[in-house]
Amino acid sequence: MDIDAWVWWLIGAAALGIGLVITAMPELGMLAVGAVAAAVVGGLGGGAVFQVAVFAVVSVALIAVVRPIAARHSAQRPQLATGIEALKGRQAVVLERVDASGGRIKLAGEVWSARPLDSELAYEVGQEVDVVDIDGATAIIM
Fold this sequence. Notes:
The chain is an alpha+beta fold and 142 residues long. It is 49% helix and 24% strand. It contains four helices and five strands; from the N terminus they run ααααβββββ. Strands 1-2-3-5-4 form a five-stranded mixed β-barrel. α1 runs antiparallel to α2 and α2 (26-43) runs antiparallel to α3. The protein is rod-shaped and about 85 Å long. The N and C termini lie far apart (79 Å).
């Protein structure tokens, strides 16, 4: 029993797809798309050389175009700050005197331990302060 070339291309695409899932290498997905394109050419009756050429052109084109876009996109900072990044720059209210030895503030509805950015300063109860950083579970305020 002789299997058509387009079936082999689909088997190769499936193997590349499985490799993509296992390794999380997006290049394998682009090669899989190239294999599917070669399978289409093979199914339409294109010769072996034309199938390999389509595979190579589509795969290289995807890697050359998509990879730089994905790299640029992944290097961007998220537009919506979450976690401790979202707390930086917010205002808080002093609940317990904050000095170099520590204190407590109310930040985003929660009680946080705090210390001043400048260790010579102290903040009194009820005073509004700005959070400049988070160090572990301690807010750095000014």
